[in-house]
Amino acid sequence: MRNDAIGVFDSGMGGLTAVKELNAILPQENIIYFGDTARIPYGSRSPETIMRYAREDVAFLRQHAVKMIIAACGTVSSVVGDRPFVTDLPFTGVVLPAAETACRITKNGRIGIIGTPATVRSGSYEKAIHKLRPEVAVISQACPLFVHLVENGYTDFRNPVTRLVAEEYLEPVRKEGVDTLILGCTHYPVIREVIADLMGPEVQLISSGAEAAKYARRCLEARDLLSDRKGPGENTYYVSDSTEMFIENAGHFLHQDVVGKVFRCSL
Ligand code: DGL
User: Fold this and answer.
1) Residue 13 CA: which ligand 1 atom is closest?
2) FRET pair for 216, CA 20 to 30 Å: which of 25, 28, 164, 240?
3) Distance 64 CA to ligand 1 centre (A)
4) Statement: residue 267 has pLDDT above 90
5) By the 8 A CB rule, do 179 and 108 touch?
6) pTM value?
7) Among candidates 159, 183, 240, which has minimal Cα distance to 21?
8) Are the beta carbons of 206 and 180 closer than 8 angstroms?
9) How far is the CA of 115 from the centre of ligand 1 (A)?
């Protein structure tokens, strides 16, 4: 079991921000990634539909030998909440890991959250933060266009469209004087530079995908499930739409070309 893969899924490519961190901190692990690129975005859908998609994504990963599942999607994590439907395997979303880190590092007790409409509507991050630190002020902002910009490659720091959209979304959060901002959707680290520039150097940004990866390491360690493979592990990617589009765009998330096999699958 300890050399089984870590299963990671997202509505598209955002979960690759978790894969990137997993590869950095757990290089000996095999990763099986599923990106539901045919049905993205999840963030503008109803909780019932998101839940149905999430169950199908997990069922797909379970067809492979996986020892843990990471819902590397802020939207899925928010809808699943603290009632996860995977109970026989270690499972994590991104909300709790990111909330824990934010609560630990904020100095002024003001935390911003940006995410998809479904994530912000669910109040998932606020609830997780207030469970840990009830006195913290939370300022949330939905950023519906970010996922589309990122999936379509509008990721350059200088891209005027991305900057304009980001200014519109981030100004209300910046004005609230937060010192910590959770990138509550796993797509957002790809435009981190633009976000950082607009928020200013005193605001710390938290990647929810990367925090979930760190949490997964702690979780596997505690259960003695870390791989004892001697060499590096392998990444295998499955997507529900074009593999070419995935390969072309995945570099923005991984900061390198895709290494590993990429397959198209249907659920
Ligand atoms: N990466 C997903 C998230 O973290 C994107 C959401 C979407 O599909 O709209 O929320």
Assistant:
1) 1
2) 240
3) 23
4) no
5) yes
6) 0.95
7) 183
8) yes
9) 8
- Which residues, other chains included, contact 254 with Cβ-Cβ below 8 Å and sequence gap of 6+? 16, 19, 20
Residue 84 has pLDDT above 90, yes or no: no
- Please indicate whether residue 43, judged by its CB atom, sits closer than 6 Å to ligand 1: yes
- Per-domain residue ranges of the chain: 5-94+210-264, 95-209
Average pLDDT rounded to a whole number, residues 57-79: 97
103 is catalytic: no
Q: How far apart are CA 37 and CA 51, in angstroms?
A: 16
**The domain over range 5-94+210-264 is classified in CATH as 3.40.50.1860:** yes
The pLDDT score that the predictor gives to residue 59 is: 96
